[in-house]
Amino acid sequence: MSGRHKVQDATGVIVGDGDGNQLVSVKEGAPSDAAVGYQTGALLLDTTNKRHHINVGTAASSAWARMSPVREIINVTDATKTLVLADSGSLVVLDKDDGIVVTLPAASSANIGWFCDFLIKTTASSAGFSIDGASSSDLYYGHVLIGQDNTSTAANKKVHLPNQSSHYKLAITGATKGWVQGGYFRVEIAAANVLVVSGTLAGVGGTATPFA
Prior knowledge:
Oligomer: single chain
Distance between the termini: 50 Å
Strand content: 35-45%
Order of helices and strands: EEEEEEEEEEEEEEEEE
Number of domains: 2
Radius of gyration: 20 Å
Structural class: mainly beta
Shape: elongated
């Protein structure tokens, strides 16, 4: 491995290995996944956002995870959002009343331990919210509790479980499935093809399973 030296040019490389891969570097802006030339475990300082990142991928294809003392807040106001490995630990705020589809990272062995929390900030009026596995092989485990915010049915609460055989979507697509503002839940990649969910949703009327 090369010795420590000052950054002398625009490459931003501080330390590299004998194969020409970066071990410690700086750049303006967050790093991009699938980059070549960053050794596994390489550290990168994003000087624009003042955050550190670590490569949990390979030198042939990087995959970056943030190293931050504060939590990232991801506000989603578009119809679709794809989460990546670097989003692990973030709070995802669902803030659109006519539908959001969130796609999770692949539930692969390399991504075990990834998680995000989700907050339904805005009550849906159509379409609702769907938190989808990256493929139909990434199945949900765990549970969600749906409680009613309607006074006449306030005692109506039910725990819903995925079938663990075909459910790869948390499809909160109706009032009975918990699309009222205030819902809060976590999704974690616990093993290859295993998504674990836990949390509470708020609904109106009876309850129906949000798993699909």
